Amino acid sequence: MRRFSWVPILVFISLAVWVRPVAAQQPTPSDDEVNAIASQLYCPVCENTPLDVCPTQACHDWRELIRQMLAEGKTTDQIKQYFVDHYGARVLSEPPRTGFNWLVYIVPPLAFLLGVFLLYRAFRTWKLVAAESAGDPLHAVAPSHGSAPAAENEYVSRVEEELRKRN
Amino acid sequence: MTEKTSPPAGLRRTAPVWVQVLIWVGLLAVLIVLAIGLFHAQNPILSVGSKVPNFTLTLFDKYPYQTSTQVRLSDLRGKVVVVNFWASWCVTCADEAPYVESAWQEYGPTGQVVFLGVDYTDVDAKALDYLKMYNITYPNGPDLGTRITPIFNRNIAMPETYVVDQQGVLVHQQIGAFQSLAEIQSVIDPLIRGR
Amino acid sequence: MLAEFGFGVLLLALIVALFSVGAAIYGYFSRSDRWVESARRSLLLTFPLISLTALTLIYELATGHYELQYVYSVTSNEMPFYLKITALWGGQAGSLIFWSWLLSAFASAVAMRKWDRDQEFLPWVVAVTAITLAFFLSLSIFFENPFTRWWQTAGGGMLLSMFPPQGATLLVPPDGQGLNELLRHPGMIIHPPMLYLGFVSFVIPYAFAMAALITGRVDDRWIRITRRWTLWAWLFLSCGLVLGMWWAYDVLGWGGYWGWDSSEVAALLPWLVGTAFLHTVIIQEKRGMFKPLNIILIILTYVMVIVATFLIRSGLLSSVHAFAQSTIGYQFIVFIAIMLVISVGLLIYRWKDLQSEASISTTSLWSREALFLLAALIFGGIFIVCFWGIFFPIISEALTNQRMTVGPPWYKQAVGPLFASLLLLMGLATLSSWTYGTLKTIGRAVWKPVIPTALLPIVLFVAGMRNVLAYIGLTLAAFALFVTLYEFGRGVGARARTHSENLLVAFWRQTARKRRRLGGILVHLSMVMMALAIIGIEMFQTTTQKSLAIGQSIELSGYTIRYDSLAQFPYVDGRIVTRAVLSLYRNGQYLGELHPRYDLFPDGQPMAIPAIRSTLADDVYVVLVDWENLSTAQTPFKVYHNPLVMWLWVGSFVFILGILITAWPEREIEPAAVRVNATVPKLSST
After folding, report:
1. In this structure, are C192 and C293 located in the same domain?
2. Is residue A25 a contact partner of residue A37, using CB atoms and an 8 Å limit?
3. Are residues C432 and C422 in the same domain?
4. Nearest chain B Cα to A159, which residue?
């Protein structure tokens, strides 16, 4: 009886040992895990389409590739790097911060700062005029020299001013 | 009586010079960029008759070029180079595969013509399956980083084939699949005739 | 025959438009009213002419004249009738005609208004409008002619030409290629016209601005005239954008409505500048300030309209929207360059006269004027971000031969803080005072709405929310909301007090009389609603994908979706429809059925149509994924849970209502409501 029961156990154990390398792999990554990475990548072929929503056969293959790489234990960064090496930096959803691409990150803040500077200058002008007029409260209508507005223009402007007040 | 206070004369001025210059320069820059972008988008960089820039193709292990897994275009000076762009997900590439392989069988042994297959944005496993399925034997490799394809055509559509002559000048651009072996022969034969 | 007629009338329209330009300019310089009137009438004439062309083209589309290359490319026999008509804007050549048609309609509307007070503007408004019209007409005539036809030459070859080549016969294909399936959706039918309406209608305020600069009448007369035009233009453009979002959400099946695709951003560019312009002109109306800024903004809006049209049409953008490579890119650039140089040149020439006459002397930095200026700056910031996001890939590819993707993460991190500050400003500016406002005056006004606003983070915290960005966004949105409501309530209350009316009557009279104010309040409310929707989907969207066998379920965010059945059948237009039936449950309660579809068209183009269940609280959005082989054993589904999305559509309705109220013609200005109790002595009769 005992000897009889040894054989299946031995077979079972040796099978388990033999099968183990396969079982060492992680369980198949779920669609969600694949999509979590695919959503950060762009389809190398189609125009501006994220990899998780791209419907083509090629994109299907790439998502399966991601699934396989996840099963092998690769990290998100490793997978993304693989895609960049193989297909170029355009698979990333924003340009990598290297070399020429720094421009894409620097120009908008610089332009905005320029705007802030212009605004600052505008406000300073207001304050300057305030300071000047404050010193001379009776400084009323100053007839402009040079480009002297014709009487008609001045009349029109005053009518416009009145209209403006009524609104 | 309407009070009209105008700003003191000193503040009424035309836009300062540096602002004017900045505006004009900025506008000019934008327009020039637009024009350049448009030009590049519409015109191929490479056209028949121009020199093909050098590139390096990393080959699949099973599809080397004379035992080397890397080949540079400049190394192939003196030979006719046929650069064939394909992908495993491209349906019409399969149509022309037999013709291209036959052409390789014909011209390869002469030593005067080299066929290079460039695999465009593909999955390696699928690519190798494709090559096996169509019994392709000429050197093949993936376009790593998609650096080679933009040299030839920014808006490439599979398949495309480019034939470069012995001096490194582009002599033929084939957009779409070859329809027959004779088509390929008609392009290559004139290049190796009389040699 | 018909094609020659359509083309001939188009050519005639161009000649008339060019004549209009010449006559207007000549009439201005020779001070001849007759010539100016002639120019005005010519502009009026362009509308019936172009209408004839457009109607001819529509007729050819509807009756399937496939010898016309355009008809061949956008229609086919199996398309329903209404789609054949809307195919007018389905392709490049037709949509250029459509653009010209709309512009001529607006040009006629402007030409037909009462010009008595503004005679001096007339020649230049006509000229500028006619120049723009002439440009688009010449594109159609010389480069993108929808009336070119297929010919079979005597030698047996095929030729595309307007007029019959020697010895050739007409080639009539039996069927057309048909419109891209993605475009066969109600949203896509009305989105392009609405967007074009928005683009085209901004040409009019620009024309008036140019007229003001040229004639030197740079006071706010031109602003007053164009106030309603600008409102309608803004309304159309905003609706065009929202319709595009609706189409993307409803049809494209990727779970969102704005992907920061280059074409989306391109259409946003004129909207951003236009919105800034809409606000800063209020300051010019009230206080005569910001004149140069307003001119700059309207020039920029006009240029961006042309640039956006160019970007979307020239094939320059890598985008899901991209049309085929076109031949008209350089023409656009030249036109933009010329108009820009002229506009900016005029601006610099008139700069001195644009300095404000009004008293900027006492304007505080916390006044409404200053806050509006700040808002303009922020809109400018968002504009720069969007502009650069589109142009950098173009520059990068031109210089480094490497195509780069500038995608949502880049845009969001740049634009998020800017939009958040706009929400804050919307609240602060509403409560700010004109000219003399100080930090104290704002503070005094703002503490009342701040109280309920401050409660919100506490409520959120107790409810378990931990997303920091969401706290900021929702609190700012709440701030803007409470300020807006408070401001409106304050107005009603004030009226009730001064007129001794009860609150209901006061409410009614307030809304009836102060239309501009109510309109503005509604529009700001709609912005808060849209902000809510955006915060909901950006920060709280969840998604999952799973392959199911029949009977199995997916769970997401408290919802359970059970897979019931699958059917596959052909549809009338030749596509194979695969339709799944799913049941939706939440907490065990049955909520309804969902039917996502996967359509496969004869030419191989697939379309995944989502099934959406919308409530004000959230959307459940289900798509069939990657469907190629019929297998009920493993059907892949993707489910999105999108909170608060419906507020985007609700917000857009409130928005439309708000603009309509503001833009509707107002009654005469209310006479001063002061009761005089003096007795008038009787006149003794003599």
Report:
1. yes
2. no
3. no
4. B2
Tokens 């004149």 identify what position?
Answer: C291
Same domain, C636 and C582: yes
**Do C169 and C196 belong to one domain?**
no
pLDDT single digits (tens) C414-428 = 999 999 999 999 999
User: What is the domain partition of chain A in residue ranges?
Assistant: 24-93, 101-166
Within this chain, do residues C301 and C399 fall inside the same structural domain, yes or no? Answer: yes
Cβ contact, residue pair C405, A125, below 8 Å: no
> How does the average pLDDT of chain C come out, rounded?
87
> How many separate domains does chain C show?
4
- Calculate how close chain B gets to A13, using CA atoms only, in Å: 34
What is the residue range of C439's domain? 427-539+652-684
**How far is the alpha carbon of B144 from chain C, nearest alpha carbon, in Å?**
13
**Statement to judge: residues C289 and C438 lie in one domain:** no
Question: Is any Cβ of chain B less than 8 angstroms from the Cβ of C433?
Answer: no
Burial of C513: CB neighbours in 10 Å, binned 0-12, 13-18, 19+: middle
Specify the pTM: 0.87
Tokens 């023409």 identify what position?
Answer: C331
- The beta-carbon neighbor of C626 closest among A55, A107, A160 is A55
CA distance C354 to chain A (A): 13
Interface test with A, best of B1, B4, B153 (most A CBs within 10 A): B4
What is the C-alpha separation between C99 and C88, in angstroms, rounded?
A: 11
Encode pLDDT of C602-631 as tens digits.
Answer: 777 778 889 999 999 999 999 988 656 656
Residue C317's pLDDT band (boundaries 50, 70, 90)? low
In B53-132 the beta strands, taken as DSSP E runs, fall at: 56-58, 70-72, 80-86, 113-119
Tell whether C414 and C433 lie within a shared domain: no
- CA-nearest of C138, C119, C104 to C14 is C138
User: Which of C431-443 are b and which e, b meaning 16 or more Cβ less than 10 Å from the residue's Cβ?
Assistant: bbeebebeeebbe
Higher pLDDT, A47 or A64: A64
* Phi, psi torsion values for C518, nearest 5 degrees: -60, -45
A47 three-state secondary structure: coil
Residues C338 and C214 in one domain: yes
Model-level ipTM above the cut of 0.90: no
CATH class of the structural domain A24-93 = mainly alpha
Q: Which residue from C403, C545, C606 is facing A31, i.e. has the nearest CB?
A: C545
